[in-house]
Amino acid sequence: MRSAGVSGGSRVLRDLLSRYRGRVALLAGTSFVGALLEALFLVMITGVAMALVAGEDRVGPILGHSVGIRTSLALGGVLLMVRLAVNLLGVRISAHLTADVTADQRHILSTAYLRASWATQQAEPTGQLQTLLTGFVAAATNAVSTFTIGVVALLSLVAFLGTGLAVDAAATGAVLVALAVVGTILVPLRRRIRQRSWASAGASLDFATSVSELGALGLEMQTFGVRQRFADRIDELNHETTETQRRVQTLTGSLGPIYIALAYAAVLVGVAVLTIVGSGDLAVIGAVILLMLRSLSYGQQLASAAGSIAANAPFLDRIHATVKRYQASPAATGDVIPAAVTPLEARDLNFEYLPGRPALSGVSFRIDTGDIVGVIGPSGAGKSTLAQLLLGLLEPLHGSLRAGGRDLREVDRDWWSERIAFVAQDAALFTGTVAENIRFFRDGISDEAVRRAAMQANVLSDIEALPHGFQTHLGERGSQLSGGQRQRLSIARALAGGPQLLVLDEPTSALDGRSEALIRDTLGSLHGEVTVVIIAHRMSTLDICDRIMVIEGGRMTAFSSPSILRKDSHFYQNAMAVAGISAGAES
Ligand SMILES: Nc1ncnc2c1ncn2[C@@H]1O[C@H](COP(=O)(O)OP(=O)(O)OP(=O)(O)O)[C@@H](O)[C@H]1O
């Protein structure tokens, strides 16, 4: 992985830049013209200075022409103005280019994530996507903007050396050779920067994950009084990350001084060549030295840009590798539209998260339209996994799951999503109004339906007690609400779309007895119209169920009516006993 990423570094950047090749070419053109104008200006101004020193009233001959001093100064002024205009145009192109790269990278990454399968999204370490979208995209953009600086420096160098060749071919040729040698000497250093930077990018992602995890444990951290341990852990992770950054920066920073040392040696060589070859014209010698020094400054910019690209390109590689990974496991979709969502028929359903460790095996059942089915079983038995399979979020490893007579994998995802709903164990709300949280981006749901759903979920009076009712803005993740209110709001969200299939994963865990009874009544009233699957730990939640499925160790050990289970299922009997309900007493 590491070597693939490193070796692919410049290729990813090249591919990215080829998408903007028109603008890169325009930028290159403006840099070249700007540098050419600057070189001509320098040649001209040196000529004027030398002419003044020699008491002459004409400059040159430079590039085969001799010009009056006043005309030269006027020409110099024009050159400067045109150069300024060309440079400002270049700055504008470069700013647009980098802004577009940032926007495009964020778009590509977030779209790829949103289109990836649930299994891929679920496996994504906490905090990594945010870090990729922010810090990594910034570094990738930096690589592109540094590339544009490099292009400007390279073409300026070419323009200067071209002008130098026209003024004095021998001296400029010597500078050219020296610069090529310096560039070659620095190649291994840049390679090393790229390798270290790839490792540094990985360390940043690990840091982001660890910090997010620690952040999510704030309540526990305070309760158990382990703040110092957390601070130490953050320091430790911080140290590991900054250490890799330090190495990259040391190498990147040393590129400049090494270049300067080698470049001044090149100046010495250039001047030595000039001394040996000789030149009778003072103006020419002055102009060549000025051009050489300016060339070296552009050369230094080029070397720094190359170092910076080497340090930033691996972040782009990481983004690219992540996008590829997301794209490799897209969310399943088909184009079949069944007559209805139900019946749901599972045949020999098998699923495993990790190879060789089945979370569900050999599960077969049929759930008919309007059935209310409870799912019970010990912790870790596979109930939530079954719920995710029923929702079409996970695909069975073996066996099949049919919805309305068609394999769920073939069913059109938009059609399916409009007809199903889910209430998770942890109600997930977002920063927005109460109504927005219930509607949940489904624009077709009317205000009336939102209100009705709130009533069904027994949360209407809570909403009406809020300062702005349905328009009240909830804090981050609905932090203004209690756990029970959040849970009822997420039940309202599920009911608002009028689903044909409603799957609930422990929907009443945060509710008091009265609220739970009201939700139970609401779910009971759906009987015959909506197919309901409820994963429940509270036995009272199961009162409304036609049948109860018992899952133990990934296998379905029973699926019958409560009265039969009371006789046949040990798990059910034990669960009833724990709930304080005797087998005989309940009927
Ligand atoms: N994302 C995952 N990666 C790897 N293993 C997983 C993952 N999610 C669940 N498992 C494993 O799959 C098995 C079934 O988990 P599942 O969450 O379906 O159980 P559950 O019956 O819903 O448990 P609980 O009642 O505690 O919520 C467990 O052994 C669990 O460790």
TrEMBL record:
Chain segments annotated as coiled-coil in the UniProt record: none
Entry's transmembrane regions: 24-55, 67-86, 136-163, 169-189, 255-276
PROSITE patterns: ABC_TM1F, ABC_TRANSPORTER_1, ABC_TRANSPORTER_2
GO molecular function annotations of the record: ATP binding
Source organism of this protein record: Fodinibacter luteus
PANTHER family, A to Z: ATP-BINDING CASSETTE SUB-FAMILY B, ATP-BINDING CASSETTE SUB-FAMILY B MEMBER 6
Classification of source organism: Bacteria, Bacillati, Actinomycetota, Actinomycetes, Micrococcales
Membrane topology term: Multi-pass membrane protein
ABC transporter domain segment(s): 344-578
Keyword terms: ATP-binding, Membrane, Nucleotide-binding, Transmembrane, Transmembrane helix
UniProt-listed Gene3D superfamilies: ABC transporter type 1, transmembrane domain (1.20.1560.10), P-loop containing nucleotide triphosphate hydrolases (3.40.50.300)
Subcellular location per the Swiss-Prot or TrEMBL entry: Cell membrane
The protein's name: ABC transporter ATP-binding protein/permease
Highest taxon listed in the record's lineage: Bacteria
Ranges of residues in domain ABC transmembrane type-1: 25-311
Keyword Ribosomal protein attached: no
UniProt keyword ATP-binding, yes or no: yes
InterPro entries (UniProt xref): AAA+_ATPase, ABC1_TM_dom, ABC1_TM_sf, ABC_transporter-like_ATP-bd, ABC_transporter-like_CS, P-loop_NTPase, Type_1_exporter
